[in-house]
Amino acid sequence: xxxxxxxxxxxxxxxxxxxxxxxxxxxxxxxxxxxxxxxxxxxxxxxxxxxxxxxxxxxxxxxxxxxxxxxxxxxxxxxxxxxxxxxxxxxxxxxxxxxxxxxxxxxxxxxxxxxxxxxxxxxxxxxxxxxxxxxxxxxxxxxxxxxxxxxx
Length: 152
Hints:
It is built from 6 helices and 8 strands. By secondary structure, the protein is α+β, with helices and mostly antiparallel strands. Strands 2, 3, 5, 6, 7 and 8 form a 6-stranded antiparallel β-sheet that branches.
């Protein structure tokens, strides 16, 4: 766990790999709950039997946006900025899904601090590139630049 105590430490870490999270198993329950919350109930995610019969993946896969939504839990295992008033999700830059995540697979993230910029109100804007890999897979599930702001 990379812990930053202040702005200067964050700014000094630009360009560095911050660390790697633990593995998290993607379950059918997670996929079903995500489908319910988002209304994306496409059969390749939620119809297990049909996905086993017809999917090129041999079974159901996680939504790409479910993988993206795991960034908070994965990122919280990798780094934190202390002595802040608050942190905000500011968005994402480039997000790509090079490989599907089969239900039952385990994923983890490696995070790199790409950019840290001072913005108005005493805040820092951080751009963290997350590479989410699938255990024993050749290609990553997702590469995304998460943009956040922390206010000191």
